[in-house]
Amino acid sequence: MTKQKAPTVPPVNLKEANALHSFRIMIRDREHFYKLVNWFNQNVGKGEDKWTMEGRVLKTLKQGTAVNAKVYIFKPDFDISAVSFLSLI
Question: Which residues contact 26 (CB under 8 A, 6 or more apart)?
Answer without folding.
Answer: 66, 67, 68
